[in-house]
Amino acid sequence: MKEITARSLPGIPALLFLLAAAVADSLFFIRSASDGSSALAIAAALAGLVIFVSLFGLYMLEPNQTAVLSLFGRYVGTDRENGLRWNNPFYTKKKVSLRVRNFESGKLKVNELDGSPIEIAAVIVWQIVDSAEAVFNVNDYESFVHIQAESALRAMATSYPYDSHEEGQLALRSHATEISHHLARELAERLSDAGVEVVDARISHLAYAPEIAHAMLQRQQANAVIAARTRIVAGAVGMVEMALAELEKNGVVKLDEERKAQMVSNLLVVLCGDRGAQPIVNAGSLY
User: Fold this and answer.
1) Which end of the chain has fewer beta carbons closer than 10 Å to its terminal beta carbon, N or C?
2) What is the pTM of this model?
3) How is domain 101-208 classified at the architecture level of CATH?
4) Closest by Cα among 107, 105, 71, 79 to 3
């Protein structure tokens, strides 16, 4: 079902016309009753009933609000005109807001790609773009959006690891933009039949589950220490190579293999140690 534009009349002129008709009909009814003409009195009473029923055709629409019109269960169209409007009084008028809305999902406990339990929540920004689909394709579009958002968030969270273990691997913690786009696409597919457009979807909470949070923190700290040590060792090796090359290039001193090994050992201790090295002056020979 797709939205169809319905026409309506301006409400203020219609209201003034109905009020004027009601006054005229009242005067006509009083005159007919005083003249003793029962036929004219009945006609005036019927006209008054028609005017009264016509008043139910008035309705008001605010900006970014529509009225879905149906007649005895058949969809007629959607009125998007703002202000006071008038239409067939027998139409059922269901107002639907087109304003942008947002909500934050509850914290969900799911297993990420590696199987570790995590807590995750997201902020979803959405709006209705097709009021007919929102009203007739689903029973309650607001509840539908909330449930589908949680379902899409669970499906997305199980597709990625919490932290990337390989270069270029997408992860929940380190690739927020890509993860948000994936979540938005997942939601758009699920909500397209309900006339809902997903404006934005972003993760608002991400953490390991309490039962493994401490162990995961220790693992992260260990990974950080290993990465730092790896970089320090790589830099130290490069500095040692540069020092040996400069000594040989400038001919400052000629070193045999044993002395080179000793120098390399000393430089690595100085460059890779946690504390500042204490120099020891050797006044004698190396041997």
Assistant:
1) C
2) 0.67
3) 2-Layer Sandwich (3.30)
4) 79
